[in-house]
Amino acid sequence: MRTLLLAYEKAKASLRAKVEPPFHVIKNLFGYRKVRYKGLAKNQAQLFTLFPLGNLVLAGRCQGHADGAGVS
């Protein structure tokens, strides 16, 4: 039972480690802390543009590490 629980917690932590960085970038870099617009379509459109931008930021960070150069 304990090993099953440990495997479950490890799976949760692994998923969380993959999902949290894009949300961190969107909240802190782009300042998306709360919903600004009235209407689901406008908020959805804003998130559909912020997530690809967040992916570009994260990809740029990874590419900088692959080259051996640090991001300053």
What are its keywords?
single chain; 72 residues; mainly alpha; 2 helices; 0% strand
List strands and helices in order, with pairings.
Blueprint: H1 2-28, H2 40-66
Helix pairs in contact: 1-2
Report what the structure shows:
With 72 residues, the chain is mostly helical. The protein has one domain (20-72). Helices cover 75% and strands 0% of the residues. It contains 2 helices and no strands. The protein has helices at residues 2-28, 40-66. α1 crosses α2 (40-66). The longest helix is centred in the N-terminal third of the chain and has 27 residues, at 2-28.
The total beta strand count reads 0
Parts with pLDDT < 50 across at least 5 consecutive residues: none
Main beta-sheet strand count, sense and barrel state: none
Mean pLDDT: 82
| Shape, principal axes of CA atoms | flat
Spatial gap, N to C terminus: 47 Å
Structural category is mainly alpha
Helix tally? 2
**Fraction of helical residues:** over 70%
User: What is the alpha-carbon Rg in Å?
Assistant: 17 Å
Question: What percent strand?
Answer: under 5%
One letter per element, helices H and strands E, the order comes to HH
Number of domains: 1
